[in-house]
Amino acid sequence: MDRRSYLKASGATFAAMGVAGCLDSFTGGDGETITIGSDIPYRPFEYNTEAGDLVGFDVEIAEAVFAEELDYEYEFQSTSFDSIIGSLNNGNFRVIMSAMTINEERAEQVDFSDPYFTAYQTAVILSGSDITSKEDLRGVDVGVQKGTTGETAAEAIREEFDGELNIQSFDQITGAFDALLNNQVVAVINDNTVNAEFANQNDEVQFLEGEGEAADMGENAPPYLTLTVEEYGIAFRQGDDEFRQEVNEGLAAIRESGRYDEIYAEYFEG
Amino acid sequence: MSDALSEREEPTGASSGLLANDDLVRRIGEVVAGLFLAVVLGVLGWTVFSEVDPDLLQTIFPRFVTAYLLVIRIVIVSSILSVSAGIIVGLARISSSPLTSNVARGYIEFFRGTPLLFQLFLIYFGIPSLWGTGQFPISDWEIPAAVIGLTLNHAAYVGEAMRGGINAVPDGQMEAARSIGMSRVQAMREVILPQAWRNALAAIGNDQIILVKDTSLLTLISVPEIMQVFRSVNSATFDPWTPLVWVCLFYLAVTLPMSKLVGVLEARADWGSDRKSLAKRLGSRMPGGGTS
Amino acid sequence: MSKPKPLVEFVDVNKWFGQNHVLKDVSFSVDEREVVVIIGPSGSGKSTLLRCTNRLEEVQKGEIHLDGIPITDEDVNINHLRQRIGMVFQSFNLFPHLTALENVAAGPTKVKGVDETEAYEHAQELLNRVGLGDQGDSHPNELSGGQQQRVAIARALAMEPQVMLFDEVTSALDPELVGEVLDVMGDLANEGMTMLVVTHEMGFAQEVGDRIVLMSEGEVAEVTEADQFFEQPRTERGERFLSRLL
Questions:
Q1: To pair with B289 at 20 to 30 A between CA atoms, which of A249, B240, C13, C181?
Q2: Do residue C56 and residue B198 have CB atoms under 8 angstroms apart?
Q3: How far apart are the first and last CA of chain A?
C-alpha cells in the first residue's frame, strides 16, 4: 500500500513537473473539499482504529479548524512522508497535516501555518539494553523514518560521532519500531509523543533518559533525553496565502475557545 | 516490363485501403517512430537541461556508487541461488512422485501468486517477531532477508521456466537415452536437462532481469540500495530530476550487462548452428572435444 | 555350424491401450544371428511390439524373454537389460547438444563407465563402419537424415548389444537417403547381428530378412521364411497383403 501511494505520488510529480506553474489553483478552495496529505499511521497524530475509523490529534484539530471554525469539508489522504512536500507542490492535496516540523529547509519549499504543537526528538530503547546515554549510541544501529526530522537528528549525531552511527531508514515509523523489537536497531529516534505511545503499548520499550535540548532551552524538560525542540505546522503551497491566513485565524480561534485544550487533554493527559 | 505493370489499373475494393499498401504503412511507422523519438528526446533533453543540477549530480554520485555496488552483490548472489533452486523446483515439479510434484506446485503457486513485497515483509518483519522482543539473533537481517526473499520468489519462476523447458524436449530423447541403458536420473542429467536449459534460457534470462528491478522494493525493508538513495536525496533537496539521472543510469548499468550475459549463454547453447558450423569448417577441429 | 538358439522369445504377449487390445497372443522367436522382419498394415501393432521388447511399453499379459531371461519380470534391472538391446528409432533421436562422436560414445562412457580414450576410439571406429568417419565433430542438425540415422545405428552398436531393434528407421527419410541406411543394416546382418526389423521396405525384407512375421490387427498372421513368403505366402492374409503391394 505504501509503495503504491508512493508511486502514485511520484508518478504525479514527474508527469506534472512540466506544467507545475498551472497547478496552483487546481485542487481545493472555494467551498470544495480540502484534501489533507498525511503519512498514516503516525500514532497518536493520525491513525486508524481497528474498526477502520481515522482518528488522532491532527485529525481532531482538522475537524476543529476546517469543519467547525471555517465550515469546510475535508478529507485526509494517505501518502508517504518522504515525498509529501513534493506531492503538495504538485497539487495532490491542499495542505499537509502530518505532525510536520517547521524548519528552514522545508520553509523554502512551503509556507507553514502558526505552530500548533511542540515536540522533541527522543530515543526509545529496549529495557535491559546497555544504552544509558547518547554517547552509548556510538557505533550502533538506530532506526528512523525517511524524511523526518528524526532522521536529521540521527544524522547530526552521526556527524558528532565522526560517522560512527549506522542509520536505518524506514518508510513508516512502524517499520522502525518493528526493527527495534526484532533486534535490528538498538534505538529509534523519533518525536516524543509518538515514541511515548509505542513505549506505553510495549512493556519492553522505554525512553533513553538524560538531559538535552529541552533542559538547555529552559523548557519544562521531560525526564527523557531530548535531542531537539520542534514545533509542528500545517504546510501550504507558497502563494496560497489567503487560505493560510484563514487557517491561522481558525487555529487562534480554537485556542481561545478552549477547544484546543480539550483535544490536547484527550490525547496527552499528563 | 515496369511500364507494362504501371499501366495496369489500381485494384479497387476492400483489398485497397490505406493499410493495404506495404510501403505506405512502413513509412507511417517510421514517421510515428521518428516523432516519438523526437518528442522523448526533446522533452528529456529540455528537462535534463533545465532541471538537473550538475553540482548536486556530482555530490550525490558516490552515494549512488555505493548503493550500486550493494545491488550488484545482492543480484549476483540472489541470481545464482534462485536459478539453482529453480532448477531443483522444476525437477521436483515434474517428478513422478505425487508428493514431490504437489509440494513443488504449492511452492510455485505461493511464491508466484503473492507479491514479492509481501514476501519480503514476511521475512524481514515477520520471522524475527517469532523470537521474543529483542531476541532475534541476527542483527543485520535486511540483507539476508533480501537475498532469501528474492531467491525464494524467483526460484518459483525459474522452476516454471525449467518445467516448460523440460516439457519442450521431445519424448524421443528420453526414450533414446533409456534405450542405451541410462537410468532416468542419468538421462535427465546427460540428455534432458542440457536441452531443457537451452529451451528455458530466454525465459530465465527475462526473469533474472526482473530480479534486478525487484531490488528496488528493498528500500521498503531499509536496504540502502539505489531507490533508497534517490528518496533520501529527494526528500532532503526536493529535487527529483537530478538523482533520477543516476537512478536510471545505474539500473541500466546492471540490466544491460545482464542482458549481454544471457545473450552469451544463448549463443553457447546454440549447438551446431550455421554460424558455428561455418566457423568450425574454417577453423581447426579437435576430435572428441565437446563444444557444448 | 552350431544349432541356433532363440535369443528373443515372445510368449503369448498381450497388450491393451485402455480398452484397445493392440497385441493379441503374439508368439514367435528370433534366433541368434537371425534377421526377422516384421511387416503388416498400419496399426497392426508392429511398432508397439518392438517397443515392448525393450520395455518402452509394458506388456499386460504374457512374457518376453531375452537369452532366457524374462525381461517382462518386475524385479529385473531394466537399465542393465537395455544395454544388451540396441534400438534405432524412426525419428533418429540423436542428442542434439552432442557431436556425432559424443553421441556414439555417450553410452559406453556414461553408462558402462568405459575409459574415455578407449570409448572415443571405439566410437570413431563405429562411425567409420557406417561411413561417417569424417563427421565425428558435426552436430546432428548439421547432418542429413540418412547420416543422422547411421549415427544412430552406430550409437546403438556402441553398447555391443546382443540384438538390434529397428523401428521403421527409413520411414522418415527422403527416398534418396534410404539406400545408405539399408546398406548399413545389410552389412550388419552379414556380420551376424541378431536383428528385429519393423519396416515397409519390402526389397530389404526379401533380400536381407531370414524370416517374415506378418502382423495384422494385433495378431501374428503368418511367420514364414522370407524367400518363401515373397514367392507364395502361406496364408490368405499374407496373400492379400502382398497383392496390395504389387
A1: C181
A2: no
A3: 35
pLDDT at C168 > cutoff 50: yes
What chain B holds in terms of domains, given with CATH numbers, is: 69-223 (1.10.3720.10)
| Residues in B touching A182 (Cβ below 8 Å) | 125, 128-129, 131, 136, 141
Contact partners of B by the rule of 3+ C-beta pairs under 8 A? A, C
DSSP label at C3?
Answer: P
Task: Write out the residue limits of the CATH 3.40.190.10 domain(s) in chain A.
Answer: 2-116+233-267, 118-230
Kindly list the residues of chain C whose beta carbon comes within 8 Å of any beta carbon in chain B: 54, 56, 79-80, 82-83, 85-87, 89, 91, 93-99, 101-102, 105-107, 110-112, 116, 120, 124, 136-142, 152, 155-156, 158-159
| Confidence tier at C149 by pLDDT (50, 70, 90) | very high
Decide if pLDDT at B281 tops 60. Answer: no
Of residues A21 and C199, more confidence is placed in: C199
Measured CA to CA, the distance from residue C13 to residue C7 in angstroms comes to 16
- What is the DSSP annotation of chain C? -PPP-EEEEEEEEEEEETTEEEEEEEEEEEETT-EEEEE-STTSSHHHHHHHHTTSS--SEEEEEETTEETTSTTS-HHHHHTTEEEE-TT----TTS-HHHHHHHIIIIII---HHHHHHHHHHHHHHTT-GGGTT--GGGS-HHHHHHHHHHHHHTT--SEEEEESTTTTS-HHHHHHHHHHHHHHHHTT-EEEEE-S-HHHHHHH-SEEEEEETTEEEEEEEHHHHHH--SSHHHHHHHHHH-
**How confident is the model over B76-110, as pLDDT tens digits?**
999 999 999 999 999 999 998 999 999 999 999 99
At C227, the pLDDT band (50, 70, 90 cuts) reads: very high
| CB half-sphere exposure, A112, CA atoms < 13 A | 18
Identify the CATH homologous superfamily for domain A118-230: Periplasmic binding protein-like II (3.40.190.10)
Residues of A whose CB is below 8 A from B219 = 171
CA distances (Å), C208 to each of A10, C120, C184, C193, C225, in order?
Answer: 80, 30, 11, 12, 11
The cell 565437446 sits on which residue? B290
Mean pLDDT throughout C35-62?
93
**Touch between A and C (at least 3 CB pairs under 8 Å):** no
| CA separation, residue B197 to residues A16, B155, B188, C227 (Å) | 46, 14, 11, 51
| Verdict on whether the full-model pTM lies above 0.95 | no
User: Could you tell me the pLDDT band of residue B285, with boundaries at 50, 70 and 90?
Assistant: very low
Nearest residue, CB atoms, A82 vs list B217, B235, B244: B235
CB A187 within 8 A of CB A115: no
Mutation site for B-interface testing, chosen from A131, A184, A188 by largest number of B Cβ within 10 Å:
A184
Question: 3-class DSSP state for residue B271?
Answer: coil
The CATH number assigned to the domain with range A2-116+233-267 reads 3.40.190.10
- Cα(A106)–Cα(C6) distance, integer angstroms: 98
Please, which pLDDT band fits residue A4 given cuts at 50, 70 and 90?
Answer: confident
Mean pLDDT of chain C: 93
Q: So where are chain C's domains?
A: 95-160
Contact B47 A18 (CB under 8 A): yes
Mean pLDDT of B135-155: 94
